[in-house]
Amino acid sequence: MNATIRQLLDTADLLIKDNSVPTPTPTPTPSPATVGAGASVPAPLAGRTATGASLCRGAAFALRAALESAVAARLTVHGAPRAIREGSTRAALLWLRGCTEAGTARRAKAAWSQLCLGCHYHQYEIGPTRDQVRAWHAEVATIVTLLAL
Questions:
Q1: Alpha-carbon 95 to chain mean position
Q2: pLDDT digit string (tens) for 113-132?
Q3: Backbone phi and psi for residue 77, each to the nearest 5 degrees, phi listed first
Q4: Residue 135's pLDDT band (boundaries 50, 70, 90)?
């Protein structure tokens, strides 16, 4: 496991820690009488903190990047063509079947698919939960270890 993959896994771990997310303090909106010439109105999102859902989504992005890096490293060791290593992840995962055990390749594909779903934001869907991201973290860490063998 290279340093980049380790840092990505550590970043995901930090994002899903159980420390409570502080509630953002509302920024007072100045009235027109208090805003004089040359005074600036504070930005609407100034001082805001990340929500639990966005932290989980960020952790999912870090985990997906770690998994993609581990797959690329495995393909590099086995001499896969550059177009496969640097192309789409779907192509890399297909090529991975020839570079590792079939079960490991299937687990990598399944984890990558779930992480992709967790990374994409839709207004009508609830983002990934901390428990989901913890399970993904454990799975990605296992897959990364298997790919490094």
A1: 23
A2: 999 998 888 777 788 889 99
A3: -60, -35
A4: very high
Exposure string (b/e) for 41-80, b if CB count within 10 Å is 16 or more?
eeeeeeeeeeeeeebbbbbbbbbbbbbbbbbbbbbeeeeb
- Structure tokens of 22? 């502080």
> CA–CA separation, 71 vs 84, rounded Å?
11
Query: What is the rounded CA–CA span in Å between residue 134 and residue 59?
Result: 9
In this structure, are residues 63 and 8 in contact, taking their beta carbons and an 8 Å threshold?
A: yes
| Residue 48, pLDDT above cutoff 70 | no
Q: Is the pTM value of this prediction over 0.90? A: no
CA distance 141 to 120: 21
**Mind giving me the DSSP string for the chain?**
--HHHHHHHHHHHHHT-SSPPPPPPPPPPPPTTT--TT--PPPTTTT----HHHHHHHHHHHHHHHHHHHHHHHHHHTT--HHHHSS-HHHHHHHHTTTS-HHHHHHHHHHHHHHHHHHS--TTS----HHHHHHHHHHHHHHHHHHH-
